[in-house]
Design brief:
The protein has about 80 residues and is mainly α. Helix content is about 65%, strand content about 0%.
Length: about 80
């Protein structure tokens, strides 16, 4: 079982990435990022977790409220 310190650290890391995503969406009006960047990797992880049912409900709701799409279909994401 993970220690409470690890859990708190993981929650803080997720919240930091989410805040970075919010800022990116506000400035770029898009979820699109450069493929090599860490935010891009995090976005792809969230999509995969959402598609596989591994994303916590509260996190899914926060991402959905931003307009986040849980798909890896490039044609859908470009719309």
């Amino acid at each position: 079982m993970p220690s409470s310190l690890f859990v708190l650290s993981e929650i803080a890391a997720w919240n930091r990435r989410f805040s970075a995503l919010e800022k990116h969406v506000r400035e770029a009006h898009s979820f699109e990022t450069n493929a090599g960047n860490t935010l891009h990797a995090w976005i792809m992880e969230q999509r995969e977790a959402g598609l596989q049912g591994r994303l916590a409900v509260d996190r899914r709701l926060r991402l959905t409220a931003l307009g986040f799409l849980f798909t890896t279909n490039a044609a859908v994401l470009k719309q």
